[in-house]
């Protein structure tokens, strides 16, 4: 029987950003802001150089926004899918700590509920379903980035079955998966070569994004028993969901750790910045 591990196979650590460059897999930092592809608005790059190098691979999958895309987000007060996607990114940035902790806790619960199943054989896709909460009548400038969307559900699925059922969608992540794999080989000495996927989607729109995390070889058992861990993990899941759905974002520890603290999320100009006041 596998032992629950305390390595990043169960934990999304401080270096695991929710968004990364589609070519080099670099996360967004204070000095580097990820920018969307102007053609499809579905992938991001850290630099013009990465975008140019990746273009031959991305070109067959890149498509401009259609009238159908715009029509599906018009009811929420958006003129384009690109504007909708930018607000979703702001929402994800506002709740980055909560989503990362949710992934961590859900993976631990998944493992504790299936103690006799090797972790590598458990479903490797966690899907978050979101609901847009804006309307046509909302004034865009007054929208609170932390309250634009709500988390409806999170479910595990078999990644291989998802890939077979959604061939075109999964094919669009090929270059990102390759970049992620190279990055994991370089940065994680206990990386097994297996990737865990997380999808964020808004049903009823043409928007969905997928992110990838490394699976590592277990180094040490998790503290306590599954029976002891389960109520704690479930409480953390509930706390994270309430933080997201009540518009109460948690600020990331500026020192780079995984601790967080409550505060006010501030928009400075056009950029969303991590400015927190207790």
UniProtKB/TrEMBL annotation:
Gene Ontology molecular functions: zinc ion binding
Keyword list, A-Z: Metal-binding, Zinc, Zinc-finger
Domain MYND-type positions: 21-62
Keyword Transmembrane helix: no
Domain of life of the native organism: Eukaryota
Protein name: MYND-type domain-containing protein
Pfam families the UniProt entry points to: zf-MYND
Keyword Cell division recorded: no
């Amino acid at each position: 029987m596998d032992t629950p591990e305390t390595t990043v196979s169960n934990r999304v650590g401080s270096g695991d950003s929710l968004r990364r460059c589609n070519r080099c897999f670099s996360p967004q930092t204070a000095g580097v802001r990820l920018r969307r592809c102007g053609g499809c608005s579905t992938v991001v790059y850290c630099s013009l150089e990465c975008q140019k190098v990746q273009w031959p691979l991305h070109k067959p999958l890149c498509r401009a926004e259609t009238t159908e895309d715009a029509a599906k987000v018009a009811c929420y007060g958006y003129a384009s899918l690109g504007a909708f996607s930018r607000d979703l990114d702001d929402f994800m940035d506002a709740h980055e700590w909560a989503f990362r902790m949710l992934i961590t806790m859900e993976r631990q619960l998944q493992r504790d509920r299936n103690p006799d199943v090797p972790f590598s054989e458990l479903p490797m896709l966690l899907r978050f379903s979101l609901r847009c909460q804006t309307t046509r009548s909302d004034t865009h400038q007054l929208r609170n980035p932390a309250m634009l969307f709500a988390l409806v559900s999170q479910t595990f699925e078999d990644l291989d079955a998802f890939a077979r059922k959604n061939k075109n969608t999964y094919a669009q992540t090929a270059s990102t998966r390759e970049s992620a794999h190279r990055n994991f080989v370089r940065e994680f000495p206990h990386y097994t070569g297996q990737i865990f996927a997380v999808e964020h989607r808004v049903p009823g729109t043409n928007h969905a994004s997928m992110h990838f995390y490394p699976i590592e070889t277990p180094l040490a058992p998790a503290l306590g028993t599954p029976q002891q861990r389960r109520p704690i993990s479930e409480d953390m899941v509930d706390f994270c969901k309430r933080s997201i759905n009540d518009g109460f974002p948690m600020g990331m520890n500026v020192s780079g750790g995984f601790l967080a603290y409550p505060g006010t999320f501030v928009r400075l100009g056009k950029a969303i910045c991590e400015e927190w006041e207790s």
